[in-house]
Amino acid sequence: MERNIMATRELSFLDHLEELRWHLIRATLAVAIGGVLAFMAKGFIFDILLFGPSNVDFFTYDVLCRLTTWVGFEGGFCYRGEMPFSIQSRTMGGQFSAHVWTSVTAGFIIAFPYIIYEFWKFISPAMHRQERNSARGFILISSVLFFIGVLFGYYVISPLSINFLGRYQVSSQVLNEFDIGSYIGLVRSSVIASGLIFELPIIIYFLSKIGIVTPSGLRKYRKFALVGVLILSAIITPPDILSQILVAIPVLVLYEISIVISGIVLKRSKAN
């Protein structure tokens, strides 16, 4: 009898693994399709998007120039001419490798809503009907937050980092000639990291559902979270105050929103 029970449990576990495997396969296929589309749109992806922040007429620089001029603060964003650096490829397969990995990254961004859909399809059967109803809109909200984070990384973190690092010199004798992999890696990490950071409210929602996080705990450790956010903004942005403030503010807002979300989850669980 015990053997039959163990066999049933083992079969159930293997069935879950098989189901997870197919979810991962479909999600990977979606990333591949998005990557192929991005691969064919090479001109737009590289000339318009990736190399956009390397031009002085980029949207963010214009906005910051107007803002710093208006407040009377010289932030180094108003300038003419060209950026004082060049982008090169120093290896035989450098450009092709950059093209492939950039396409994969773009494919992940394009397919993110479908990836979240597959994740939801896998975990939703284990939830009660009421829990599924309360989590309605999960795919839409997660996707919107992710894309907002991607835009924030592209229009704020990337240009701030490129502007600072591209202009920084230890000596006038050292020229800034960046490898294409280094440049694209900076933009890619900024965009993906910001997109995932903006998923904080969703993460807090599920952690609150299983009782790991509470609103009182989030309020209690708010000061530590503030320090962590400042450290994070110092790591992913250039070491100037303006850049760190621009990055820290939305993350702190997301933290406060997460406290509200955790409180709503706790209130609903007590009502049930």
Automatic annotation (TrEMBL):
Q: How does it sit in the membrane?
A: Multi-pass membrane protein
Keyword Transmembrane helix belongs to the record: yes
Subcellular localization, per the record?
Cell membrane; Membrane
Annotated keywords: Cell membrane, Membrane, Protein transport, Translocation, Transmembrane, Transmembrane helix, Transport
- Its transmembrane ranges are 29-51, 98-117, 138-157, 191-212, 224-241, 247-266
Q: List the molecular function annotations (GO) for this entry.
A: proton motive force dependent protein transmembrane transporter activity
Coarse class of the primary localization is membrane
- In which domain of life is the source organism classified? Bacteria
GO BP? intracellular protein transmembrane transport; protein transport by the Tat complex
Q: Which family does it belong to?
A: Belongs to the TatC family.
Function according to Swiss-Prot or TrEMBL: Part of the twin-arginine translocation (Tat) system that transports large folded proteins containing a characteristic twin-arginine motif in their signal peptide across membranes.
Q: Which PANTHER family match?
A: SEC-INDEPENDENT PROTEIN TRANSLOCASE PROTEIN TATC, SEC-INDEPENDENT PROTEIN TRANSLOCASE PROTEIN TATC, CHLOROPLASTIC-RELATED
Name of the protein in question: Sec-independent protein translocase protein TatC
Organism in which the protein naturally occurs: Salinimicrobium sediminis
